[in-house]
Amino acid sequence: MDRYGTNLARIRFRLREVGLAYTLYLALQRLSSRRFFQCQRMFIIALPIDAAACDVPPHPCIREATRDETSRIAAIGGPVADVEEHFDRGDRCWVFERDGMLLACDWIRHSAQDRIGWIILGKSSDEIWSAGILVDRTQRGQGIAPQLRAQVIRECARSGVRRMLGFIDTPNRNSVRALDRVGYRPLGILFYLRIFGFGVIRSGKPWRWGFWSERSPVRLSMCDIADPSCLRLWSAITDEHIAR
Length: 244
Ligand SMILES: CC(C)(COP(=O)(O)OP(=O)(O)OC[C@H]1O[C@@H](n2cnc3c(N)ncnc32)[C@H](O)[C@@H]1OP(=O)(O)O)[C@@H](O)C(=O)NCCC(=O)NCCS
Prior knowledge:
CATH superfamily of the largest domain: Gcn5-related N-acetyltransferase (GNAT)
Bound molecules: coenzyme A
Helix content: 25-40%
Strand content: 25-35%
């Protein structure tokens, strides 16, 4: 197949898997230069963790991965540089392995805050950020992500974490459905647009704007983000799934 045919097949696969809205959203992200133009709209999500999570039985296919496995983790579907960046930041990685093949990975961030480029999101000491879950594209739709995340929650519960935070692009319906199944609910929606260093942010509170950069970032707390009305959009995505 020539390059045009391969690209067309990839677009068709994406459309079937994630739908038109998220395909267009990802195309915009890919085409724009992150230095000059950034635009993202995401749910900030949370999952309360209670002591009962410690009692979840261990899963035979799930374990923590080490840095030696960088190339195997990257083979699930991301560049080696991304995996190295995660380990450099001190993130920990859990993997789902079957018949000697890594099928999915789930990253947890142990630092006190998470950063989306020039936005810093704070958290309290008994909270933890999830930093991305990825399932091999040939293995999606089999419930691997919810099983993997349930084990990660078990590990977090055992180390005293009381709430897990994360973010999902609002059009990423597959991720919303997978994490809704685990028990996550949205706290609010964070929207940002940044053109040539000038940024605009909309979260639970009114719009704010300014010149922000990685060196002089804007800081947001969970109180800045909280907006119960976002549950309507979340439910529309999960109810659409129940209706199917
Ligand atoms: C989001 C993701 C982690 C979900 O993992 P998963 O193991 O497929 O999760 P599930 O099996 O619970 O599937 C979740 C939903 O996606 C749908 N889905 C995902 N991939 C699919 C595919 N290839 N074909 C059909 N349906 C698919 C499932 O049908 C399910 O929807 P449903 O509840 O209406 O049936 C996975 O799709 C993925 O790795 N996506 C790319 C990376 C990403 O977006 N990560 C999340 C960042 S927050």
